[in-house]
Amino acid sequence: RYLLMDNRVTEEVEKRYNRAVQALRDLSSGRAELNLPTGENATGSSSGYAVCKDDTDRIFTSDTLKDF
């Protein structure tokens, strides 16, 4: 979204973009971790980043995108 707005970027969009980039930098450097379960005794991270996944069916699959 940030990159698509050219010179019309709002302050809120820029803040969100910068927070997302910083989160990715933290993850890549090891300063933060994703809260992913790794086994029976998995512990969460205090980094503040979480990943959520539900069991709903995928909307975009090879079959639904075959004509695009």
Protein architecture, described:
The protein is mainly α and 68 residues long. Helix content is 28%, strand content 0%. It is built from 1 helix and no strands. It has one helix at 11-29. It is flat, with a radius of gyration of 17 Å. The two termini are 22 Å apart. The model has no long low-confidence stretch (mean pLDDT 81).
Structural class based on helices, strands and sheet pairing: mainly alpha
**Rg:** 17 Å
* Terminal Cα span: 22 Å
Fraction of helical residues: 25-40%
Shape: flat
Q: What's the total helix number?
A: 1
Instruction: Give average pLDDT, whole number.
Output: 81
Strand content: under 5%
Question: How are helices and strands ordered from N to C?
Answer: H
SSE arrangement:
Layout: H1 11-29
Give a quick rundown of the structure.
The chain is mostly helical and 68 residues long. The chain has one helix at residues 11-29.
Core attributes:
about 30% helix, about 70 residues, mainly alpha, about 0% strand
